[in-house]
């Protein structure tokens, strides 16, 4: 066998392995995408193949481009076998070095522990859960999604919504519910000076507490009314969701009383009307930006 033939055979085996893994994950509802060398993702449409549209695939947000669907970075992840096995990914898998997935898209959070000291810290500080070995450390996987953040402490990243993680196997151990100890890692202490809006530091407010300007029932009524407004929308669901998110954040976005549960209720209502998880996150982020958060 010639050297070129050997290389072709190795490429074909890698292609079959990665594609088979991706299709198997997608069949279980896990959004997947191929990664090229350097952990860089492929766009999932012909226009953005090889990033010719000028998008920045390493960024958390997709684009820029005028594609009819999100096709960059974490937003390229899909469970559609027609996209996974079709163009342009049919050729992408031949170059792919790994399979990645969107943890938040399937309701998971990955605590990425990058070295032995980080692993030792997790064993002391976090509840046991499913563990996947990595090249230098471990992935601890919990049931439940949250905002993602890098370098929450030395050697520790949080990978959940709006990011992708490498698929390194199913891991071992029972998967635990996402604990407050992990959610708290992304909450920064507010500065003692500056306007109140500086205290809002995460895309989706985490933590809980009573609303300081009204009784707790006020927040519950507000969330219930927001759910009803989205549910009863006769059309223009994306606009309705955005305006509803804007109203909720305007009333409660700076007082620290919103929790991930409240946000999940709003996203669930919007998705029941046909919105995608990506569009919900996009509308929420745009509402925060409009309010200067």
Structure description:
With 293 residues, this protein is an alpha+beta fold. The protein is 38% helix and 13% strand. The strands form two sheets. The chain has a five-stranded antiparallel beta sheet. Strands 2-1-3-9 form a four-stranded antiparallel beta sheet. A hairpin with a 4-residue loop joins strand 5 and strand 6. Helix 6 packs antiparallel against helix 7, helix 6 runs parallel beside helix 8 and helix 7 packs across helix 9. The radius of gyration is 21 Å and the shape is globular. The termini are far apart. About 11% of the residues have low confidence.
Short description:
The chain has 293 residues and is α+β, with helices and mostly antiparallel strands.
Looking at this protein, list some descriptive labels.
9 strands; five-stranded antiparallel β-sheet
């Amino acid at each position: 066998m010639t050297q070129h033939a050997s290389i072709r055979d190795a490429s074909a085996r890698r292609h079959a392995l990665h594609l088979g893994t991706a299709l198997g994950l997608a069949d279980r509802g896990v959004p997947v995408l191929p990664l090229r060398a350097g952990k860089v993702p492929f766009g999932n449409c012909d226009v953005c193949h090889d990033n010719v549209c000028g998008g920045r695939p390493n960024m958390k947000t997709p684009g820029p481009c005028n594609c009819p669907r999100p096709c960059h970075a974490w937003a390229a992840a899909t469970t559609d076998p027609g996209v996974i096995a079709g163009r342009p990914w049919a050729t992408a898998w031949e170059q792919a070095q790994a399979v990645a997935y969107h943890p938040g898209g399937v309701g998971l959070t990955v605590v990425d522990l990058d070295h032995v000291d980080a692993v030792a810290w997790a064993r002391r500080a976090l509840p046991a859960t499913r563990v996947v070995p990595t090249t230098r450390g471990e992935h601890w996987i919990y049931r439940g999604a949250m905002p993602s953040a890098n370098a929450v402490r030395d050697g520790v990243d949080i990978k959940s919504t709006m990011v992708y993680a490498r698929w390194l196997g199913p891991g071992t151990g029972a998967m635990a519910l996402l604990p407050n100890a992990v959610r708290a890692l992304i909450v920064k202490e507010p500065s003692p000076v500056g306007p109140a809006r500086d205290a809002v530091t995460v895309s989706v407010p985490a933590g809980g507490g009573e609303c300081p300007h009204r009784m707790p029932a006020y927040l519950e009524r507000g969330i219930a009314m927001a759910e009803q407004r989205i549910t009863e929308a006769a059309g223009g669901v994306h606009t309705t969701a955005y305006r509803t998110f804007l109203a909720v954040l305007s009333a409660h976005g700076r007082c620290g009383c919103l929790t991930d549960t409240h946000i999940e209720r709003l996203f669930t209502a919007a998705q029941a009307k046909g919105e995608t998880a990506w569009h919900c996150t996009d509308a929420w982020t745009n509402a925060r930006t409009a309010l200067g958060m």
